[in-house]
Design a protein that fits this description.
- The chain is an alpha/beta fold and about 200 residues long.
- The protein contains nine helices and seven strands.
- Strands 2-5-1-6-7 form a five-stranded parallel sheet, with helices on both faces. A two-stranded antiparallel sheet has the order 3-4.
- Strand 3 and strand 4 form a beta hairpin.
- Helix 2 packs across helix 5.
- The model has no long low-confidence stretch (mean pLDDT about 95).
Amino acid sequence: MSFRLGLTGGIGMGKTTTARLFADRGHPVWDADAAVHRLYAPGGAAVGPVHAAFPAALADGAIDRAALKAALAVDPQALARLESIVHPLVAADRAAFVARHADAALVVLDIPLLFETGADALMDGTAVVSAPPDIQRARVLARPGMTADMLDLILSRQMPDAAKRARATWVIPTDTPARAGAAVDAIRAEILGQADA
């Protein structure tokens, strides 16, 4: 049975890079965002039910994320409806991934809303990536099309970094690549040491 490590962190905290560090060390990594993209793609399990709930969101046999976002913007109840469709499908995708990698000592589950959705209860441990606010802002504002107002809105919808760090089993500092790599290796050693015990 694999150790299920839930990996999370706010925007610009270095979660994608940290997930790659685990993958580069040979651990299977499941990405919640990638799972949603698969579910929304042509033939994806979410296409039919999301199209039924949001008819304008279908384009070329797939869910058009921009059209879906527009539909969510005009209806305060729409997000809850969408989540009731998509969250169970994402959970099933995650469970199938874990089952496929049952022989792996450690499986990393990259979940942006790990604590917000209660998925942390399904993990054997949790790791939060964290960087100082000035580094976080600089990283995000360097992204094409991102503005300070957009970032502030995103941050207002995410659990604060301090709250995530307080709930996590481990905190991975991502202010420098060396510190992130060292933290990943320390977590692996602790988990794999437990697995060998």
